[in-house]
Design a protein that fits this description.
Order of helices and strands: HHEEEHEEEEHEEHHHEEE
CATH topology of the largest domain: Umud Fragment, subunit A
CATH architecture of the largest domain: Ribbon
Largest sheet: 8 strands, antiparallel
Structural class: alpha+beta
Shape: elongated
CATH superfamily of the largest domain: Umud Fragment, subunit A
Number of strands: 12
Number of domains: 2
Length: 285
């Protein structure tokens, strides 16, 4: 209140607030609200994108950890394990999930279907299956990591028949034996092999006896007449080879180190019509 005039004087602070805060009804106020709303939407979008990137990164890391330490898909490129696993050169084969964790706590057992890195003498003549085109090669490597293309290494899949300390042998009159006991192999299919084990017990040349060294495995394919397995890579004494008897020499060449085993085939992941577990019946029981 002005003591001279008796009139009220305007409050300076109110005037400042009036100047600073536009009337909501004015165009300036509308523009300010619109800018504020736009900034809010932009921040929300950035936050959503950031969250999406974080989630994708976490998913990729977890997937990498799973593939490296727990399980990994593999494409079966050959027909050596039919009918248990389907595969053929130049066509679409089964994709299996390989358990990489089990053998960290146990050892491979007879009947297990395992994926392993071929020893040097098993990889003679192996040629890269990758394209010479750099871009295509990178794509092939990426697809191999998720099991849609075979790995560019001599990774093989076979069934464990005998382990370290056991003696494996095959004769026409006794069939395939381990420690002198004939094996029961329900996974063999005469139609697939074009040969009947009841008529041709060895499904090829007679071989052995071979005593498997400790820490190594004797492996064979289920499609016994179309499998380059331990029988093919073992060494032969010349006099025995002349008589058609195989694998009577150094047992190391025909066996694989346990440390080369990548994991155990657990189930068929693709195609859907083949979904199911991989048979691991122990033929010695």
């Amino acid at each position: 209140m002005n003591p001279v005039t008796g009139t009220s004087e305007p409050d300076d602070s109110s005037a400042e607030r009036t100047l600073e805060s536009p009337d909501p009804a004015t165009p300036e106020a509308a523009d300010a609200d619109q800018e504020s709303g736009t900034d809010g939407k932009t921040k929300k979008k950035r936050g959503a994108v950031r969250e999406f990137v974080i989630l994708v990164s976490i998913a990729l890391v977890l997937y990498y950890v799973m593939l490296t330490f727990i399980a990994r898909p593999y494409l079966i490129p050959s027909e050596s394990m039919e009918p248990t696993l389907h595969g053929c050169t130049g066509c679409v084969g089964d994709r299996i999930m390989v358990d990489k964790l089990t053998y960290d706590f146990s050892s491979p057992k007879p009947g297990d279907v395992v994926v392993f890195k071929g020893p040097p003498n098993w990889s003679i003549g192996y040629k890269s299956i990758r394209s010479d085109n750099t871009a295509v090669r990178y794509l092939q490597n990426a697809l191999s990591f998720i099991g849609f293309v075979p790995p560019d290494e001599n990774d093989l899949v076979k069934r464990v028949i005998a382990v370290g300390g056991q003696t494996v042998e095959c004769r026409a009159d006794t069939g395939l034996t381990v420690n002198g006991r004939r094996l029961d192999e329900p996974y063999l299919d005469p139609a697939t092999m074009n040969a009947d084990p009841a008529v041709y017990p060895c499904l090829g040349n007679e071989f052995g006896p071979v005593t498997v060294p400790e820490g190594r495995l004797w492996v064979m394919g289920d499609n016994r007449t179309h499998s380059a397995d331990s029988r093919v890579h073992c060494t032969n004494l010349p006099e025995d080879a002349q008589r058609g008897l195989m694998c009577t020499g150094d047992p190391m060449a025909g066996t694989i180190p346990v440390e080369n085993v990548i994991g155990k085939a657990r189930f068929i992941a693709w195609p859907p019509s083949r979904w199911g577990g991989v048979n691991s019946v122990n033929p010695q029981t």
